[in-house]
Amino acid sequence: MESVTPHYFLFLAFLLFGVGFLGVVIRRNLLIVLMSLELMLNGVNIALVTFSRVGLNLDGSLFVFFIMTVAAAEVAVGLALLVALYKKRQSIFSEDATLLRN
Amino acid sequence: MNLIDFLFLVFATLAVGGGLLMIFSRHPVSAAMFMIISMVSVAGLFVLLESFFLAILQVLVYAGAVMVLFLFIIMLLDVGPEGSKSSKIKLLSGLAGVVCFGILMVFSLILVLNSYPECSSCAVWPTLDDNNLVLGQSLVFSTSVKSFGFGLFSKYMLPIQVAGFLLLAAMVGVIILSKKFVREGNPS
Q: Which residues, numbered 32 to 91 in chain B, qualify as contacts with chain A under a Cβ-Cβ cut-off of 8 Å?
């Protein structure tokens, strides 16, 4: 495992984060926005595991564990909010979530 | 080109390609399917990085639990493909997204290529020894699940309790959010 250096993994992590960010910005279906958030968290996880592996330190891997926990909780609450929004507005597009617009 | 390079190429292509297809697919169900591809290939990358426990967790939590939740909500809401929005907003958000993506990629390339000074004597991937769990003050990276348990219940004792409480709070929050409240004395 010498030709694949940590640079490749780090750049892949940035790429996944960027793709997720692109999805958050350009999509207006809130379900897909939530999925893109998961993709961003995955990119960060790859970077953390790479640093953990290169530095021979377990702290990064344990942090990935906590990120997964928080992501699962976030998805549960986000989808419940989405269902509540759908009950109120009959739509899950971001331009219909105008409750706070004056 | 050895096997590791080939596997890295395959998993990286699948992860990024699945992500791109996910954010550009019209229908939410196909987006969820592409997201499963992306998550499973990220698990494969974890295997290449020799953290097998995290790969198993990735498949269980993301490709299992989270995706089932997403598919349930898609089924519940019955959302079809989205219509076309007004072209002005589309252009604006597309431009903003692409510009931000480009800036992020350029800066990450500069950062990644500069931040890691090449050390000719030391190996790029240091060899693992699974014999000792701690080295000085820090926990040692190893492939065994035992080291995870040791770390979580010694150094990260308080955070894991907080994570458990966070899951409880999320559960209560979801129940409150999706519960239908009926006012007393107003039975309609």
A: 32, 35, 38-39, 42, 45-46, 48-51, 53-54, 57-58, 61-62, 65-66, 69-70, 73-74, 76-77, 79, 82, 85, 89
